């Protein structure tokens, strides 16, 4: 079939639209001058400034603590919940409840948690962000593991039970190993989403414990500085690497299985 | 089961007990967590919307409907309507740009298809705030766009801080969420259907209107939901790109909780936001059942 030529205009326009801002950010991060708008020669000085920025470093550490903690909690709770939903109930209501945090607008969850923390008189800090991030992280882990369970073969679990294994042994030695790729994928998703999450963290963090997105938000509100460009470029490099590595890994596992 | 050695009744009892235990062990931790940190918070928002605001910002537990009558105040109603307008505009633009893009990606050879799709998703995996910041750099007074236009003898224009900038930011942030479901729907489409339509003498426009579009409608609806929902409740993009002059319902909610300390009214606004989204979800479910 003939490919409509005219369609190439919006096609390329989309990519130009998506990448122009990113390219400009990266180029300007190597700018020697102070102006974020005109390029005055190559330099790495903004990276040096960034390295000495204690607020950014602190935000990064906070973000990593929250992401690691909430991912661990979300992976455990989500995996159990997914197995429970797939094997121990037929309730569609519970099924919907399990993924609700993933579809609920972040602002609604953020406000609900802020009100809840105030009601139980919990002080805000990293722990409150960690608990909040676990809510949506768990929903994504549940969803991914749940999908894997519906496609998995139950005959191995039945065989294990027929051979006299206790339910616990069956879960630990048969179900869990089969689910590992799904659990890993869900955990990775929860981790990346937590690292990038702003709205919920903004409402549930204490002013003294900002996560990296909150630090970026205050920097951006404060004004345009080339230091943000340097930070942006570093973050871009990390996400691009992660996406490419993840892509390679899925292709590898696909070709192996 | 070693049912031959155990009497039938005990085996049944035991299997029932293990079923109950299994339910408890697997379902209760996650469900308890969701009840404590999602359902109770949601219930709090719903109930606070019916209470009165205390004089110093607390909540007075007196039933009232005044938070909802206040929603109809033109000051607030205009903000809600503006948010609807901006989110709808962003959704339609994303659809108009995203559909042809997704259509072309679906026609590419397999290798290029993957690359094209990754390139669509990649910006989405970079920090949301930094993507917004990039637009401030591009569009501000001495920014790149004005510099290029200046070379052509045009401008400089004041691009930043108006509703158009907000829409640009929304489209930029959520376009990948439009392209992916569209691509999935177009990819599933059997090319023979289009060929049959062409062979029967339909012109491309006719084939698109009577074959391609109706069959990919579920993807269109999903993509529109994915763009509309995060756009409608957004407060970051209107704040950073809208310059505070034209605020959306998300800003209003944020201010009620963090600045005005009027939690009951903020809760009523949150419920209004949820109501709009629930209506849309029901519409989506309805259209999916029809398709």
From TrEMBL, chain A:
Residues 60-246 form the ABC transmembrane type-1 domain. Coiled coil: none annotated. It is found in: Cell membrane. The chain crosses the membrane at residues 7-30, 64-85, 97-120, 126-145, 228-246. GO terms for biological process: transmembrane transport. It is a multi-pass membrane protein. GO terms for cellular component: plasma membrane. SUPFAM superfamilies: MetI-like. InterPro entries: Bact_Polyamine_Transport (IPR051789), MetI-like (IPR000515), MetI-like_sf (IPR035906). Keywords: Cell membrane, Membrane, Transmembrane, Transmembrane helix, Transport. The keyword Transmembrane applies. PANTHER family: PUTRESCINE TRANSPORT SYSTEM PERMEASE PROTEIN POTI (PTHR43848). Belongs to the binding-protein-dependent transport system permease family. CysTW subfamily. This is Spermidine/putrescine transport system permease protein. It comes from Streptosporangium canum.
From TrEMBL, chain B:
One of its GO terms (cellular component) is plasma membrane. The keyword Transmembrane helix applies. Residues 80-284 form the ABC transmembrane type-1 domain. InterPro entries: MetI-like, MetI-like_sf. GO terms for biological process: transmembrane transport. PROSITE patterns: ABC_TM1 (PS50928). SUPFAM superfamilies: MetI-like (SSF161098). The keyword DNA-binding does not apply. Keywords: Cell membrane, Membrane, Transmembrane, Transmembrane helix, Transport. The chain crosses the membrane at residues 24-51, 86-105, 117-139, 159-186, 207-229, 265-286. It is found in: Cell membrane. CDD domains: TM_PBP2. Pfam families: BPD_transp_1 (PF00528). Belongs to the binding-protein-dependent transport system permease family. CysTW subfamily. PANTHER family: INNER MEMBRANE ABC TRANSPORTER PERMEASE PROTEIN YDCU-RELATED, INNER MEMBRANE ABC TRANSPORTER PERMEASE PROTEIN YDCU-RELATED-RELATED. This is Spermidine/putrescine transport system permease protein. The lineage of its organism: Bacteria, Bacillati, Actinomycetota, Actinomycetes, Streptosporangiales.
